[in-house]
Amino acid sequence: MSITVKQLRPLFMGEIGNIDLREPLDKPTVDALTAAIDQHAVLVFHDQFITDEQQQAFSRNFGDLETTVRAYRKDFVPRLDVHMADISNLDENNRILPANDRRRLNALGNRLWHSDSSFKRVPARFSLLSARTIPSWGGETQFADMRAAWDALPHRVKARIEPMICEHTQLFSRAKIGFTDWAEEERVKMAPVPQVMVRTHPGSGRKSIYLSSHAGRIRGMEEPEARMLLLDLSEFATQPQFVYSHTWKVGDLVMWDNRCTMHRAREYDETEVRDLHRTTVSDGRPTVPEELAA
């Protein structure tokens, strides 16, 4: 039986029906989902009460899974499998993190607009986030359509930014909120990596601004000017006409394409549990060729 796709927003966002993500998928269904995310950039699946193992199996239909960057620390104690990103306010014993816990403070950076894993030499293609426990208010995830933002840019700005190469690292994004509590091994593994400023999305053929809070430098440009340009572009690309806000329900799974969207989390009551689990599919290749990366 074929999946159904309902467009949720004039520019992007698709709601998928008639599918059970707990079951193995045949190739026609995987192809249909790939076509849907190529068009809509973000897909919403309701009533998917899946396990971590089922979520990983579904995600592997689209490529290899990343491992969590939390494992960079020598003292890392996982709550979930290393192929699951722990998007929660819980410690390894399922207790709510105290206000001064470095893991909580680091996670506040998720409220900045970003693209997952843009701080990796090979960034993310898709992210898949499932809601296990939701607080009584807040905690929405907002998405911005970076293809539509590119389309709306003035031609002079497009010509200016298209050849640019940026440097991305979590050290840049977390510094914006004053977080600097990094172990030395994390700093080494989080050295800035180059990413193009403009990408051509392979599934749709459309151009997209590749932005993230992790971007902090533009090669060949003085840093204050580069940061100002990045701020201006992010402000432009996250205007209300380009943004969809998803209000979570338990059982929701949202899948998005990091190559043509940005996203951010919103504030919620942190005396309550917010527990979401993310799998991340690697894009498989860098945006900047090796000969231009140095």
Task: Characterise this structure.
- The protein is an alpha+beta fold.
- It has one domain (4-284): Double-stranded beta-helix.
- Helix content is 25%, strand content 24%.
- The protein contains nine helices and 15 strands.
- A seven-stranded mixed beta sheet has the order 1-2-3-13-5-15-4, covered by helices on one side. A three-stranded antiparallel beta sheet has the order 12-6-14. A three-stranded antiparallel beta sheet has the order 8-7-11.
- α1 (27-40) links the parallel β2 (14-17) and β3.
- It is globular.
- It starts with a strand and ends with a helix.
The CATH topology label is Double-stranded beta-helix
Can you tell me the residue ranges where pLDDT is under 50 for at least 5 consecutive residues?
none
**CATH level-4 homologous superfamily:** Clavaminate synthase-like
Major beta-sheet overview? 7 strands, mixed
**What class, by secondary structure content?**
alpha+beta
State the total count of DSSP E strands. Answer: 15
